[in-house]
Amino acid sequence: MSDSGLGRKIVLAVDLGTTSAKVLAIDAGSLAGGGRAVIAARAEREYPLLSQEPGYAEQDPDRIAEAAAEAVREAADAAGCGPEGVLAVAFSTAMHSLVVTDGDGEALTRVLTWADLRAAGHARKLRGSEEAADLPSRTGVPLHAMTPLAKLLWLRERQPELFASAGRFIGIKEYVLERWFGRPVPMDESTAGGTGFYNLHERNWDDKAMRIAGIGPERLPELRASTHVLRGLRPETAAKLGLNPGVPFVLGAADGPLANLGGGALEPGVASMTIGTSGAVRVAVRRPAADPHGRLFCYPLAEGWWIAGGPVNSGGVVFRWMRDKLAPDLSGVDDGYARLVELAMEAPPGAGGLLFLPHLSGERAPHWDERARGTFIGLSLEHDRRHMLRAGLEGIVLHLRSVADALAGLAGELREIRVSGGFARSAALRQLIADILGRPVVRTDSEDASGVGAARLALHALGLLPDPAASASAVTDRCDPNPELVPVYDRIHGMFKRLYERVSDTFVELDAFRSGG
């Protein structure tokens, strides 16, 4: 533990992710001095994603609450500082979740996660609606099935009795905290920013969005800043978690915006790129920057900070598909992914004239097209799996460049890309990102960026870190773009963009064909 006047104090950062609850016990003194986060202990509990029908992606909210409680207890115990040593608990959460509760706060549904696409048809109707045309400019959120707004439209049509009898519509973080505090809790403005109901400019629930959904503000949580502090943990919950009942809980924020804070990517022109199972490109701005074209999001982080960017479905999940389908001999091998990259790099830049659209499960930014699918074009007898693997990797990064270019047009030029996630562990792939984006790529030590960001926000809320942006992660390496390859990939990216435009109508026809239409 560091010596900064905080003694052996820790902040417990709880990250409610898509597949698990992770808890970091972070030395408070290491952050209060503006330095790198020192993680004293960590714990994780997984929970399944449930899919009873195509397009469904649900979870059991009570199982998540239990998983989070177990992880908090384990991390706190492992840190070894006792209940008195826990300075605060702070939260990070996956975005766009929806839990329908009754008047007593009991769940009437499972958690509908961001990956749940049952409302795709309703989202398409919204995008074609004159009434909803200005919603992206008002809310900062594209019109997509991931949002609770679209999910409630589906619920109102498909389960009208449940919709009518529901008490409140909340997210998974609010559900967990309400179980622990025994009362309704507010939703932070950052998480609210992903619902489709939050007015980015008025900082309140949007009248038009609520009117379209057929609800009033009384059926949504109260809104508070991400630095809002909750107190009054139920005594029985405190005993279960191994905490003092009076320990402050900081509401925290959404995981994406917190990743920028935790990764030190709050400087102008410095973008955060995460490539895990999915991916995202984000940049911090000092004013709301809603995209009038509905391609990108803009979410609040904390007072005076917003995060603009775009998420993509096509990340490591495409990498895994390529391994399983094109190189099954590398499945189950310890260094299988490293060898896969080596194999791909045996093909030349541009993969010998082979292009790949990586949209194997539909796509989000910048097209927001649930019906988009993967496409190879340019295959010839001279190509082998090395070319297909290289085209696949290039396709993932070319698509992220489309998002980065749109983001630069909205928020200003991006002079540096800070990468994290499993994809970024490979030096060859970091160089590929630099060459395709034409920008320097820096890897930071922030694999736990969202949790670290939550802890920094907690110290800021408690008055112990005046400027949370002053803390930065250490840079571990830097890749500059190869000047000979930048114009090559500029040309390839132009072809990549035009390819999507030319086949997008075919995606619609193929979707109808698959559906029997």
Please name the defining characteristics of this protein.
517 residues; alpha+beta; Nucleotidyltransferase, domain 5; 2 domains; 7-stranded mixed β-sheet; 6-stranded mixed β-sheet; 23 strands; 20% strand; globular
Structure description:
- Helix content is 37%, strand content 20%.
- The chain is α+β, with helices and mostly antiparallel strands.
- The chain has 2 domains: 10-257, 2-Layer Sandwich (Nucleotidyltransferase, domain 5), CATH 3.30.420.40; 316-402 and 483-514, Nucleotidyltransferase, domain 5, CATH 3.30.420.
- The strands form 7 sheets. The chain has a 7-stranded mixed beta sheet, sandwiched between helices. Strands 3-2-1-5-14-13 form a 6-stranded mixed beta sheet. The chain has a two-stranded antiparallel sheet with strand order 4-7.
- Strand 15 (270-275) and strand 16 (279-285) form a beta hairpin.
- Helix 2 packs across helix 7, helix 13 crosses helix 14 and helix 14 crosses helix 17.
- The longest helix is centred in the last third of the chain and has 29 residues, at 486-514.
- The radius of gyration is 23 Å and the shape is globular.
- The mean pLDDT is 95.
